[in-house]
Amino acid sequence: MVSKQxxxxxxxxxxxxxxxxxxxxxxxxxxxxxxxKTIYKHFKTKDELIxxxxxxxxxxxxxxxxxxxxxxxxxxxxxILIQKNSLKYLIYFNPSFxxxxxxxxxxxxxxxxxxxxxxxxxxxxxxxxxxxEKEYLCQNLNIDLFCYLYFLKLQNLVFEPKxxxxxxxxEDVFKLIVINSLKGYITPNYKDTNRLFS
Length: 198
Fold this sequence. Notes:
Elements: H1 4-18, H2 25-32, H3 36-42, H4 46-71, H5 75-93, H6 95-104, H7 106-133, H8 143-152, H9 154-159, H10 164-167, H11 170-183, H12 193-197
Helix pairs in contact: 1-4, 4-5, 4-7, 5-7, 5-11, 6-7, 7-8
C-alpha cells in the first residue's frame, strides 16, 4: 500500500517533470500501481494534491535553510547561501511548472507566493537589516525595494521574458543577480568582501 507521503512525493516529482496539467491522475495511479480511486481517498482534487506537493518542496527547502543558518553567523554569507539554494529550487521547479500552477491550480500558486513573501519578511529582510546595523552594507540601502527586486522577483529575473538558465551558466546568472546586487552596497567595514564577492 502506498502511503500518503509517498503519493505526495511521487506526484510532485512527476508534476514538475511533465507539467501539472499534462501529467494525469491516471498516469500517477498507473505509475504507483494503485487505482485512481485510492488517490482520491487521500485528496479530493488534483489541485489539493499539487498544493500538498508544493508544500512538501517548501518544507524540504526550509529544512535546508535551517542547515545553512547553522553554518555561519555572517548575515551576508547567509543571504548568499540561502539565495544560491533558492535559485537551485527555482531551477528544479522550472518555469513551466510555476506557470502551470499559476494558470490552473490557484491554491498551489497562492501557497507558493505566500511562502515567498513570508520567507523574505521573516528570514532575508532581517539578515539585510543586521548587515546594515553591523555596517557591512550602506545605511542608505532601501531594504524593502532590495527585497522586492532581488528576492521576491528572483523568479521573474531568471525566467522572464527568457529563461536565463537555458542561455547562461547558473553561476553567472547567480553572480549577476545576487552577488553583484549585494556587492554594490558593501562598505569598507566588511572584511570578507574578497572571499564572498570575488
